[in-house]
Write a structure and sequence with these properties.
Elements lengths: L8 H9 L11 E4 L5 H10 L7 E4 L20 E8 L9 H17 L4 E3 L3 E4 L2 E13 L2 E11 L7 H4 L5 H5 L5 H20 L3 H11 L7 E4 L6 E8 L5 E5 L2 E5 L4 E3 L1
Parallel strand pairs: 1-2
Antiparallel strand pairs: 2-3, 3-7, 4-5, 5-6, 6-7, 8-9, 8-12, 9-10, 10-11
Length: 264
């Protein structure tokens, strides 16, 4: 069983300064030095009736995960691992990952001064190397419906597994200086509150517009989609109003809403 701990002062102080910008994410923050998965902990809280905006954060995860069931390497002290409980209206669900990617990119830039790029559907990059990722998991248990929206940010260089080390980077590796983790958490949650508010208020077009600007380096690139049956090659053109990736192929245009996309 994971036991939560008092919020470290560096986080508490930064969150208190940003409280008026955090919206629902100022309600309750559960902190762990080490946890199996912040998404799993947040899901357990959601099933117990936790309010929207409840945040679970940790220094380390022993069983962190990304899309397609991949392991998300979460070494102790090397990153910031965060999950939130959301109860969005149905028409906002498909855009949550897009909005969260925008929010993490904005939070990183506000806290650390580093401009980052986005790649569909959930990756935050600096040049060719991945800095952060987003994972949204929807569920309905005993008529309790919720979405757990998690994100992980590499803060310090770490001894990642070889298959990850070759394509990962961290804030401190890019900046050459320490990063204020408390400020990073506060700015990411403030940005998430703003972009989630956009979705709830019917301003998904605003979120899409910001995403396109931050994804300019990847749009227009060749991609391969692991479609049922056989892979499909094409060019990533855009996203639509639901967050689907629009891919132009020799056979016409397709909408990609899930599955594995390889950027070539």
């Amino acid at each position: 069983m994971n036991l939560s701990q008092p919020l470290p002062p560096e986080f508490g102080e930064a969150l208190a300064r940003a409280a008026d910008r955090l919206g629902a994410f100022a309600r309750e923050i559960v902190w762990y030095a080490d946890v199996s998965s912040t998404n799993d902990e947040a899901a357990a809280l959601a099933e117990g009736g936790a309010a929207e905006g409840t945040v679970v954060a940790a220094y380390a995860q022993s069983a962190g995960r990304g899309r397609q069931g991949r392991v998300w390497a979460s070494p102790a002290g090397a990153g910031l691992y965060v999950s939130t409980v959301l109860r969005p209206p149905p028409d906002a669900v498909s855009m949550l990952t897009i909005a969260a990617g925008v929010a993490v990119a904005e939070g990183v830039q506000a806290a650390a001064g580093l401009r980052v790029d986005l790649k569909w559907p959930n990756d935050v990059y600096v040049g060719p190397r991945k800095l952060a990722g987003v994972l949204a998991e929807a569920s309905a248990v005993r008529d309790i419906q919720y979405v757990i929206l998690g994100f992980g940010i590499n803060v310090m260089p770490a001894a990642y597994p070889p298959e990850i080390a070759a394509r990962a980077t961290s804030l401190e590796a890019e900046l050459g200086r320490p990063v204020d983790r408390g400020l990073l958490l506060a700015e990411c949650l403030a940005a998430l509150a703003r972009r989630y508010g956009d979705l709830r208020d019917g301003r998904g077009d605003v979120v899409c517009g910001v995403w396109r600007m931050r994804a300019a380096a990847s749009l227009g690139r060749r991609v391969r989609w692991a479609a049922p049956g056989a892979p499909i090659d094409g060019t990533a053109d855009d996203i639509d109003a639901t967050g689907a990736l629009i891919v132009r192929t020799d056979a016409g245009t397709i909408r990609v809403t899930s599955g594995e996309v390889v950027w070539m």
